[in-house]
Structure formats: structure tokens, C-alpha cells
Amino acid sequence: MTIFEALRISHEIQRELAQQLLATRGDSPEREEGFTRLRNELEVHSLAEERHFYVPLLQLDGGVELSRHAIAEHHEMDELIEELAQTALSSPGWLPKARALAEKVEHHLGEEEHGFFQRAGKLLGERQKKTLAQEYLRAYDELKKSA
Ligand SMILES: [Fe+2]
Ligand SMILES: [Fe+2]
To answer: How far apart are the CA of 46 and the centre of ligand 2, in A?
Structure first.
């Protein structure tokens, strides 16, 4: 498996959790649990992806700009997550904020899958793509256990 395949597996989980969350209503256990699951998933993925994909790319000529851009978007998603966490589940503002987060996530995943991965694919060696996949998956599993 390459790093790109490993990251895409996580992306599909995020898409599914985001859709599930948008289908919840009001102050319900489903909404509370759905938000916790999506938040954990996004945080664990961003951290493992930064450590085992973007940081290695930062060390390569041609990888700096895309890594900075992606890490800045992770930060923007963190802020949207924090804003949602501060909003009451029963608030009428909750769903629009959840939608804004889901749209930001989808935008980011699209940019990675249709832009950054192709550019990174030309910078990383074939062996490194496999090593990074193993490192990413190990970090993801570890972080999930402690999330
Ligand atoms: Fe990302
Ligand atoms: Fe990602």
C-alpha cells in the first residue's frame, strides 16, 4: 500500500462521519456522539498526516508550498471544530456550522486527492511511498487508541 492509498481510506471514513453528523437533529445522543467521532477522526488524521506525509515533504524542494497550504487548512478545520464544540447542540446555528465544517473538510480532501497527492507522487520515491504508509497507519492506530 502507498501513503496515498492509506490516506484515502481515512478520507472515506471522514466523509461518512460528516454525512452522518449532518443527518442528526437537535440535542440528541446521535449528534453528540457523531460530533465526537468526527472530531477525533479529523484530529487523529491531521496529526498523523502532518507527521508522516507533510513534514517529510517539507524537506523536499517543490514540497514546501503544498505542505504549508495543507497544514494551514488543517488549522482552519481545527478552528471550525472548536467553534462547533462551543455551540449548543440544540442551537439553530449548530447545523449551519456543521455544514460549514463538512464543506471545508470536503474541499480539503478534494484538494489533497486531486492536487497535492499528484504533486507529491512526483517528489517521493516508490519505497518512501510504502514506508510512509506504514508509518502513517501505525501513528493513526496509536492516536486512535488514545483519542
Ligand atoms: Fe489533510
Ligand atoms: Fe488528508
So the answer is: 6
Render pLDDT for 72-122 as a digit per residue (tens, 0 to 9): 999 999 999 999 999 999 999 999 999 999 999 999 999 999 999 999 999
Tell me which residue of 84, 116, 62 sits closest to 18, measured CA to CA. 84
Q: Count Cα neighbours of 62 within 13 Å in the Cβ-side half-sphere.
A: 9
Q: Which regions of the chain does DSSP assign to beta strands (E)? A: none
The grid cell for 67 is 505542505
Q: Indicate the burial class of 125 (C-beta count within 10 angstroms; 0-12, 13-18, 19 or more).
A: exposed
Which segments of the chain does DSSP mark as H helices, in order?
Answer: 3-22, 29-49, 55-58, 64-85, 94-111, 117-123, 126-146
Q: Are 23 and 43 in contact (CB under 8 A)?
A: no
Q: Ligand 1 centroid vs 42 CA: distance in angstroms?
A: 9
> Near ion ligand 2, which residues have CB within 5 Å?
49, 112
Domains, in order of start, for the chain: 3-146 (1.20.120.520)
Using CA atoms, how far apart are residues 116 and 89, in angstroms rounded to an integer? 35
